[in-house]
Amino acid sequence: MKVLQLNFEKGWRGGERQTLYCMRAFRAAGHDVEVLCRAGAPLEARCKEEGFVTHGVRNVPAQLAYLARAGRHYDIIHAQTANTVTWAVLTKAFHGRPVVFSRRTSFEVEPGDQWKTGAKWRRVDGFVAISEMAAAEPRRLGLQPVIIRSAVEPHAIDHANVDRLVAELGLQGKKVLATSAALIHDKDPLTLIRAVGELARTRRDFVFVHFGAGGDREAQARAEVQALGLQDVYLFAGFRKGVEDFYSIFDVFVMSSIEEALGSSVLDAFLQRVPVVSTDAGGLKESLADGRGVLCPVGDVQALASGMARCLDDAAFRDACTQRAYDYVRSEHDVTEMGRRYLALFERLLAQR
Asked: By C-alpha distance, which of 149, 77, 82, 74 is closest to 113?
């Protein structure tokens, strides 16, 4: 098969990593795979580094033009984001190819948008949701998505990258707690900062490192750190290439999201046997079920602080939950298996034509 991936995001987050994982899996299985993406974005650079054919364009009209002109040369068009699936179905009259959409969010569709979103989704040939939570809204609108969970790969640690971070942030001799999340409303960084503040009232043997790009809550987050006097405890590390390396020095990984379709960053923690403390938002509740971490109610500062303390201090609990999490991620979130499930869906769609 010849597969075109669509992802036009500006940054590098979980969806972009999953796009690259899909491309690797499809290529490893013997298929041709290319990507239509934003020119100059991290996804384009990463795909070029790995030898993939990339089609970098700068705006929506250029996306539409490429799909209308060249889309018919592919067997499958796989949209990895909500925006790109719009362009894929709008140009379907020109390219005539099966469109597959991977829904990576769990947002409820606004009542006034239901007719429009429902009409778009019904023009998709293969609808995939990455979790039960991501599938809930399309099911409510009468669709039946296939569940194909996001994947994570075993990672070869770049120890030089880790050493540079430790030296830069002064992490020597400290327990390291961390998150990897953009500073946006859905990730609720203010609750996380306040939970770290609660933990810091009883101990100062740790540093909390916040990895991730800025966003609509960045100014408030930085102000909250100042207001709570956490400047030496709560460090903003920004976006870092190779963030997967840093899990090797984490003592606890924390998520404070109020909305999350899956929370793929917790899968890295599972794979590297880092205990996870998380809110029970969306797909995070699925990922951390059955004792694979500490689940807390959304917005509960005290529960997050208590969970972090328990993971730091209770070695038996930490060992048990990380083993369960490791076994789970290796069986349910394997890249090869994810690719196999997508390819099986692609083949079914092509057989129906």
From this structure: 82
Cα separation, 76 vs 61, whole angstroms:
21
Q: Can you say how many angstroms the Cα of residue 323 is from the centroid of all Cα atoms in its chain?
A: 22
User: Cβ–Cβ contacts within 10 Å for residue 273, how many?
Assistant: 16
Task: Compute the distance between CA of residue 83 and CA of residue 104 in angstroms, rounded to an integer.
Answer: 12
- Sign of the C-alpha dihedral, residues 245, 18, 274, 307? positive
Check residue 234 and report its DSSP letter. Answer: E
Q: What are the tens digits of pLDDT across the range 256-275?
A: 999 887 778 899 999 999 99
* 353/348 Cα distance (integer angstroms): 9
Question: Over the stretch 8-42, which tens digit does the pLDDT of each residue have?
Answer: 999 988 899 999 999 999 999 999 999 999 999 99
Taking Cα atoms as reference points, which of 60, 65, 56, 51 lies closest to residue 23?
51
* Domains of the chain, CATH where assigned: 2-151+334-351 (3.40.50.2000), 159-332 (3.40.50.2000)
